[in-house]
Amino acid sequence: MSKLGNLGARLHRGEIGYDFVKNRKIWYGLSILITIVAIAGLAVRGLNMGIEFQGGAVFTTPKNISVSVSQAEEYAEAASGHDAIVQKLGDGSLRIQVAGIETDQANQIKGQLSEDLKVDSEQINAELVGPSWGEQIANKAWQGLGIFMVLVVIYLAIAFEWRMALAAFVALIHDITITVGIYALVGFEVTPGTVIGLLTILGYSLYDTVVVFDSLKEQTKDLTKQTRWTYSDVANRSINSTLVRSINTTVVALLPVAGLLFIGGGVLGAGMLNDISLSLFVGLAAGAYSSIFIATPLVADLKEREPAMKALKKRVLAKRAQSAAQGGTEVHDEETYADEPEDAAPAVVGPRNQPASRSRGRGRPSGKRR
Amino acid sequence: MSWPPVRRSGARRPEREYEKVATPKKGRNASAQSKPGRSLALILIAIAALTGGMFASGHTKPRLGIDLAGGTSITLRAVPEAGNESAINKTNMDTAVSIMERRVNGLGVSEAEVQTQGRDNIVVNIPKGTNSEQARKQVGTTAKLYFRPVIATEVAGGKGAANPSPSPTGKPSDQPSGKASDKPEATDKNSASPSATPTTQGRAVTDALKADATPSASASDKPGSSPSPSGSGDTAEADANALQAKYAALDCTNAKIRSTVGDGVKASQPTLACGKNAQGQWQKYILGPAEVDGTDVDKAQAVLNTQTGAGWTVTMDFTDAGAKKFADITGKLAQNQSPQNQFAIVLDGDVVSDPYVRQALTGGNAEISGNFNQQSAQDLSNMLSYGALPLTFKVDSMTTVTAALGGDQLQAGLIAGAIGLALVVIYLLAYYRGLSFVAILSLLVSAALTYTLMALLGPAIGFALNLPAVCGAIVAIGITADSFIVYFERVRDEIREGRTLRPAVERAWPRARRTILVSDFVSFLAAAVLFIVTVGKVRGFAFTLGLTTLLDVVVVFLFTKPLLTLLARRPFFANGHKWSGLDPKSLGAQPPLRRTRRPSAPVETKEA
């Protein structure tokens, strides 16, 4: 189980770990920066909306067509009287886009094109979109997004608590903003496929966040009964102990999407597969990042404002100060048991109590474990 | 900040909890653990049953959507009349769907499907091999509903003649044609071909046409509107004869002929039409000019008439203008002999009903009774209502995909899925080694369930696999695999705390279960909301995602967990073989702890 297995074990025992909560300001700052860039990109460059959102037609010719791209462009412009964009796809077919035409016109154009290109008109794939269709898809998507957010916030508030719901909500907005921003900055075309991908991120980003929260909830169950750890400490431990899972999940989720992206982009050239997988790819990466670096620290932040948690923190700090003043071995005994006050009698007595020194050094070389 | 060294405390606390918790729950735990075989058997039976059902029903492949199979998909949006936004409601949309279904299938396409999506969209999917242009015209235009007097009618078989005499009882006029087909002898007696030879019946029909054409034209106060009545009697007769000849040649059993039969005929002209009678046979008609049209119908309803014992009937309420026209026509018809006392309700050129009239109906409403069942009565009332639908439909998008491109896209989707699956399998193998076989088997079970369900849902609820749905299935590989990862990581955490495998598997389960349920619920919620709210391609995606999420829960509960329980008894896994993925050493479990746990292992086995 090699290095990753060891890493998992060490993360699990808290021997190593990254203090996500303590450094949260860095990550908040980074996220705010990315978000600002994304919003700025969106405002300045705008989204490159696909034909589906403007109304128009996309014609795809059969493979191995003899007409060149520029020729096809001429034909299409002559037939429609509008600007046409022609792309050659990976399999040799041509994709002709004509924006700003009505669905009725589109049929004539298709007929004209099939004559010019000398292709049977039934062999031409056509996608005719009325000008309001894309808007409608987008509106419905926003509507779906709204409904989903409300439902999920309610659900998380019930299943966990409102702070977690709020943090998950913020993380979700964060993911979507980043994804949309990247689309604006890079200039990828936005199609209904992109919208589908974006909507899927909703579920996925939360899925990841929920797993971390679940572990957090479990570990903070009896938090106020001890004076060893603050909420932030435990939150940090939750992130670290689920880190291996988070990485695995993200990798496993990204692999099929990468397969889609490869096939969709590389083999088919363009289309639904490519659009969905591209936005998914960006969104999944953002989702994994946000559930670790944003959502959980945010919960910790919110939690620390609770009076009970404030009091706990005070007690913990006082205790730490006290033990630091006293110094010596006592501290370590404290460390070992303090987080389980009710755990007075160890379940297995014997060898376990003796090597008390074993767990002391968090800075100990890990090789010692073997 | 000091990093909390949880090692020892962590190792101890759960231990205690376990013993504390496990004892009271002993019964449950024991049953859950001792019957892994039952769950496995259950899910294998389910797979076998679904596969069996798939082969039994003959639908061994999922139905493919337009973008994969080729064809034309048209999305229409309902536009209500100004000031009548409430017209977009379920009833009206359903009516519109049933009308469009009739029209599209009238083109001779057998597998066209029409469905509502969202609140105000109708999607029409027409498989390849249909003229997309014609289909679009059919779908986009507004329906035309007319009431026309019947001049002649007969069953339109290949040989095409029957006795058109009505039965004197309160049955609808469809009935006699059934009789006729029961007694083919009647054909000869009744002059099979009314066209070529001027038999009595043929003449009578011609006369009727002449007689009918003129008064109707005058009644409608537009003498110039139709050529036939405005001309001389000779012209009318010539037209009538031409119509006669066409009528004789008309073969209503041919879908192509049927779809063009009434084309280009004005409402004020006599026409030919086809319709199905109560016996499901095609019947052909000569019909007079339209007397009442669909907009004159205010409301139509299917009603179960219990008072007169007539069974299911259809009632119509007319508008004021419509009531007057209807009273006129029924008054005229009531004096005629059969079949000329019938009027035909013609929708888009097809006769949907041809009730006869006994007396003038002046009340502004009417009841059509006959051999209706609930379904047929509702269908008719829907069609009647359609004329009054305050909706028009606008083509929002139309996609035509050739079969070649569809095939390419399907292939690309499958290849992408295969690559995705292979990558996931390789990753799992590298990371979880022996344990990954549980994950891979679970993925296979999940795939088998998904495939069979998709194949069966095609005929059951009209599910069609489109490209976004394929994408959804591929993305779902990740979600499904994640459940295993959550569980495996829990098991490994337990082992790291010094537990042997069997208790670790059992202890890890309740926590992993909760995590899986909570996160799958969120995922399912997203899919469900998308499915309900959105339109078009998004729905296909949402559907697969929701389906696979549900299946994920089923597979994890009924397959992965029991399988792991069983495998935990195998020495390969239980002893933590180097390749099992559960080797305590490489997981970093504490050797001293393991030694201490060893003696107590039998106790746990008993519990288990």
From TrEMBL, chain A:
Basic residues bias locations: 359-370
Pfam families the record matches: Sec_GG (PF07549), SecD_SecF_C (PF02355)
Membrane-related topology note: Multi-pass membrane protein
Gene3D superfamilies found in the cross-reference section: Multidrug efflux transporter AcrB transmembrane domain
Superkingdom of source: Bacteria
Domain annotation Protein export membrane protein SecD/SecF C-terminal: ranges: 113-304
GO molecular function, one term: protein-transporting ATPase activity
Family annotation (SUPFAM superfamilies): Multidrug efflux transporter AcrB transmembrane domain
Main function: Part of the Sec protein translocase complex. Interacts with the SecYEG preprotein conducting channel. SecDF uses the proton motive force (PMF) to complete protein translocation after the ATP-dependent function of SecA.
Protein name (record): Protein-export membrane protein SecF
Upper lineage: Bacteria, Bacillati, Actinomycetota, Actinomycetes, Kitasatosporales
Encoding gene, per UniProt annotation: secF
